[in-house]
């Protein structure tokens, strides 16, 4: 197996995206001295960035500075280029790019995916069809803001806006068909204010919740109200929409006045569904970059904060993770640039220094490890190899390996077994009749809680010993059986709560294995109450104490019953 | 001072300051961290895990990760119970003195990172809710601590578990009477997550949330809110008063939808979702550093008026922020510091 010092880190970064987040990331990484290849899937960079409330001014400044980047010899930009595949490992990825009919491969050390989202108007949800008097928030934004050149139908939309007068009505339908988000609300508020000031039209906003959880938005909301914008809030899908020839009629009951109302807007503005492009969704699947329940980048897992993916060397920034204000995208761009900088220049983290070995004599190249690795750190040719930069030392592969061919220094089977032997010697020395329990726990959650338990007042009758695992996913079924065979009264496995595993699936793998062990233990005649599996986070000291106090009592009772029998 | 390896001074050892310290340490940039209280970890240290049983992405556990990693961080010099006394800027660096028990110290730093956090809204300042007078009126922070320490909810009046409880959102936030025209950004998150946690532990508990607008948080929020709505009752109204009722209950008085009649709801326990207010030291820091405060009293990360070069900020010092945003901002700030130091050394 390669060691850390033998692997390459090519100081070149691929940035994928077509908006301000991608460009800001590129600029920051150039300043930090890296070579940059930027891949823009579109013809041009996203211009949908202006309007005051969404934090456009720094973005616009940035766009102006943009020209200077192109002159940097360390920077290459490919427009209208597709990112086809990502092969290889952190430090030395091979990315296949395609432009027109030409395909080629570039080699880069790290990748930042910073895509914009594709916004599709919710016309179908509202049973409406696009027209000059019905448009999406994005279309209106482009029509209102000077930077919206090149947007399809901009001229017609602008003409439509010019027809607005103080006698006309503008209605926004936002966050009604599905719970809204702060980006759509920020746009709505700033556009409502803009249209109100410019045309003195009566503006009505229909929504479920006014999303103001960003700096300055509550002020903007209050300003809109002061300037006469009306807000109608609903707990359901909002007003009934009736199409009558060219006209759209909104029927609703006003909550305050309890009276039915009818509004015929001269301009109707709808929100959109925001999603990742199909192409990028496909890439995420093929490169095994995990997404969330909506197919957006980065699964819901706090250990990936701020910009990590499940794969070392691949970072995620900006709206591709979910709709956000452009200024938040810029924050994320800098955070991502720092994570890239850490990857190349940062001190190697302690766990990354542990040696991982594959015993060539034992390995049958069954590829179990490759299928189970959540970090895509394993490859094979004539033998299995584990990439030392991509590997996070979680140990899932080691416990899944049917041949026990994979070992991690500090957590190798022999090391665990020698700890168990020491526990047995200790129990023999004290000749105890009280319950003897071994805890297997993830070092980052249960390990931290265990340390705190030991520092606190904690009185249990019995002997408790803790074996730290790099991740609960390192739990080997053999360990549990060996502990029972050694004469322990109980074994408990502690894993991080679901969706809170640093190695994504380590806790659920551990749970699955534990269920198998339980069946086996029952078959062999042990009382299944003697083994337990619990989810525990580092700040759940109370739960660890509670489990131990109650269970030790129960185990003590079982021992007494046995000795009485 | 060693210009090849300049030091960064961080004020505040909460989640933002710790994250920034570790991120700088990883780049080999030495850090001196001054923390006012007796321990590192800040407010997040007293927050509970809200997994019920699936993680709800609050991020409270991340402070433990940070504290654990700090043990191995060789370039971070921490001073607890310490306070900045004086700071001066010359062309190249900050010269500062600080006090701490058993004598203070002094130092020089090339950059200053503000991570002094926030002050929770004083629930007593909304006297109509009788916090401190009625023992079963808690703040969101009180509930966090209860759950963190014991995993249970109890009524302080008799230490018994409540059968019903109600959260009031926006206590101190989005309040024009108090001149707080800002959203605290975290209260919907902590209240709904704790409500789900309590409901998970006690399926019989009746939980109500009084609110104006529910703010989005975390990944896949629409799905989260749909699930939450199935087990929590939402009332779009902010109660005007909490008073004592019969049988140790609390009475919440609120306006009906029509805005004309008032309604009452009885519950065993009240939780005031207090917001994030500017740190108490912000005015002093502002003066000491020549760093303008914004209209709400925070020290903004990107002030309209310029602040002295070499000052950066992370976390709630610049405005209300969740744990995840504080972490992202700490990374952002460290990236800016790294760029600033490398530019400076190349001049």
Offer a quick outline of the entry.
The complex is a heterodimer of chains A (565) and B (347). With 565 residues, chain A is an alpha/beta fold.
Task: Give the tags.
heterodimer; A: 565 residues; alpha/beta; FAD/NAD(P)-binding domain; Alpha-Beta Plaits; 4 domains; five-stranded parallel sheet; 23% strand; globular; B: 347 residues; 2 domains; 24% strand
Structure description:
The complex is a heterodimer of chains A (565) and B (347). Chain A is α/β, with parallel strands linked by helices. Chain A is built from 15 helices and 26 strands. The radius of gyration of chain A is 30 Å and the shape is globular. Chain B has a 5-stranded parallel β-sheet with strand order 3-2-1-7-18, with helices on one face. Chain B has a 5-stranded parallel β-sheet with strand order 9-16-10-11-12. Chain B has a 3-stranded antiparallel β-sheet with strand order 4-5-6, with no helix packed on it. Chain B is α/β, with parallel strands linked by helices. In chain B, a hairpin with a 5-residue loop joins strand 13 (241-244) and strand 14. Chain B has 2 domains: 8-117 and 279-346, FAD/NAD(P)-binding domain (3-Layer(bba) Sandwich), CATH 3.50.50; 120-275, FAD/NAD(P)-binding domain (3-Layer(bba) Sandwich), CATH 3.50.50. Chain B has helices at 15-26, 62-71, 140-150, 187-201, 221-229, 282-289, 323-346; strands spanning 8-11, 31-34, 76-79, 83-89, 94-99, 105-109, 111-114, 118-120, 137-139, 164-171, 206-210, 233-235, 241-244, 250-255, 262-267, 269-274, 276-278, 311-313. Chains A and B meet through helix 6, helix 8 and helix 15 of A and helix 1, helix 2, helix 3, helix 5 and helix 7 of B.
């Amino acid at each position: 197996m390669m060691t850390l010092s033998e692997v390459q880190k090519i100081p070149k970064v691929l940035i994928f995206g077509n908006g301000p987040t991608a460009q800001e990331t590129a600029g920051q990484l150039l300043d930090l001295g890296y070579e940059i290849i930027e891949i823009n899937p579109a013809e041009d960079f996203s211009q949908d960035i202006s309007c005051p409330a969404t934090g456009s001014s720094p973005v616009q400044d940035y766009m102006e500075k943009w020209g200077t980047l192109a002159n940097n010899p360390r920077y290459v930009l490919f427009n209208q280029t597709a990112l086809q595949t990502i092969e290889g490992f952190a430090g030395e990825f091979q990315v296949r790019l395609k432009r027109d009919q030409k395909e080629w491969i570039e080699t880069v050390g790290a990748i930042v995916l910073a895509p914009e989202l594709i916004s599709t108007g919710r016309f179908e949800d509202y049973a409406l069809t696009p027209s000059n008097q019905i448009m999406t928030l994005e279309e209106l934004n482009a029509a209102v803001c000077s930077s919206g050149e090149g947007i399809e139908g901009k001229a017609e939309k602008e003409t439509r806006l010019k027809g607005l007068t103080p006698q006309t009505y503008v209605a926004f339908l936002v966050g009604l068909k599905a719970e809204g988000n702060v980006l759509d609300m920020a746009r709505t508020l700033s556009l409502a204010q803009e249209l109100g000031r410019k045309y003195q039209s009566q503006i009505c906003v229909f929504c479920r919740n006014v999303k103001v959880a960003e700096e300055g938005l509550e002020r903007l909301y209050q300003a809109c109200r002061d300037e006469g914008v009306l807000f109608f809030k609903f707990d359901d899908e909002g007003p009934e929409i009736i199409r009558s020839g060219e006209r759209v009629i909104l029927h609703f009951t006003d909550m305050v006045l309890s009276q039915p109302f009818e509004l015929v807007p001269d301009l109707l503005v709808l929100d959109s569904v925001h999603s990742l492009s199909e192409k990028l969704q496909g890439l995420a699947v093929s490169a095994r970059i995990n997404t969330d329940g909506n197919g957006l980048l980065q699964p819901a897992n706090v250990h990936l904060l701020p910009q990590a993916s499940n794969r070392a060397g691949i970072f995620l920034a900006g709206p591709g993770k979910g709709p956000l204000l452009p200024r938040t995208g810029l924050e994320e761009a800098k955070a991502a640039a720092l994570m890239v900088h850490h990857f190349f220049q940062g001190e190697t983290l302690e766990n990354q220094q542990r040696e991982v070995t594959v015993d060539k004599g034992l390995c049958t190249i069954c590829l179990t490890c490759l299928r189970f690795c959540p970090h895509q750190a394993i490859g094979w040719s004539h033998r299995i190899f584990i990439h030392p930069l991509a590997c996070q030392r979680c140990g899932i592969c080691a416990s899944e390996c049917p041949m026990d061919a994979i070992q991690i220094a500090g957590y190798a089977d022999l090391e665990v077994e020698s700890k168990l032997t020491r526990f047995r010697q200790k129990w023999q020395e004290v000749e105890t009749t009280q319950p003897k329990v071994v805890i297997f726990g993830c070092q980052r959650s249960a390990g931290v809680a265990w340390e705190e338990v030991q520092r606190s007042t904690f009185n249990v009758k019995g002997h408790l010993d803790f074996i730290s695992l790099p991740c609960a996913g390192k739990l080997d079924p053999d360990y549990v059986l060996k502990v029972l065979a050694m004469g322990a009264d109980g074994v408990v496995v502690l894993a991080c709560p679901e969706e809170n595993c640093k190695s994504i699936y380590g806790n659920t793998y551990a749970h699955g294995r534990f269920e198998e062990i339980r069946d086996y233990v029952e078959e062999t005649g042990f009382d299944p109450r003697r083994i337990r599996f619990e989810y525990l986070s580092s700040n759940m000291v109370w739960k660890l104490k509670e489990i131990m106090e109650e269970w030790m009592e129960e185990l003590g009772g079982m021992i007494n019953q046995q000795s009485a029998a | 001072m060693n210009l090849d390896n300049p030091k960064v001074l961080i004020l505040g050892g909460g989640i933002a300051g710790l994250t920034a310290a570790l991120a700088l340490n990883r780049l080999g940039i030495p850090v001196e961290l001054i923390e006012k209280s007796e321990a590192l970890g800040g407010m997040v240290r007293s927050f509970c895990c809200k997994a019920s049983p699936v993680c709800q992405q609050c991020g409270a556990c991340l402070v433990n990760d940070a504290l654990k990693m700090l043990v191995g961080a060789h370039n971070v010099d921490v001073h607890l119970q310490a306070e900045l006394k004086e700071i001066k800027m010359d062309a190249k660096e900050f010269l500062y003195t600080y006090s701490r028990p058993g004598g203070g110290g002094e130092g020089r730093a090339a950059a200053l990172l503000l991570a002094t956090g926030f002050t929770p809204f004083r629930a007593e300042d909304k006297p109509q809710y009788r916090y401190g007078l009625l023992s079963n009126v808690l703040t969101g922070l009180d509930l966090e601590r209860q759950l963190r320490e014991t995993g249970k909810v109890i009524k302080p009046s008799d230490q018994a578990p409540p059968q019903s409880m109600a959260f009031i959102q926006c206590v101190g936030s989005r309040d024009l009477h108090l001149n707080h025209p800002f959203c605290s950004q975290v209260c919907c998150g902590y209240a709904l997550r704790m409500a789900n946690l309590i409901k998970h532990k006690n399926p019989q508990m009746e939980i109500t949330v009084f609110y104006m607008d529910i703010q989005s948080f975390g990944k896949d929020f629409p799905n989260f809110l749909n699930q939450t709505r199935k087990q929590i009752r939402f009332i779009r109204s902010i109660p005007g008063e909490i008073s004592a009722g019969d049988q140790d209950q609390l009475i919440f008085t609120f306006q009906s939808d029509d805005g004309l009649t008032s309604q009452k709801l009885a519950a065993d326990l009240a939780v005031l979702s207090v917001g994030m207010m500017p740190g108490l030291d912000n005015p002093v820091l502002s003066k000491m550093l020549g760093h303008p405060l914004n209209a709400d009293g925070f020290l903004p990360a990107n002030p309209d008026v310029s602040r002295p070069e070499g000052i950066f900020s992370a976390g709630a010092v610049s405005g209300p922020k969740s744990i995840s945003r504080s972490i992202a901002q700490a990374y952002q700030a460290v990236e800016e510091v790294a760029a600033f130091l490398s530019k400076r050394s190349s001049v």
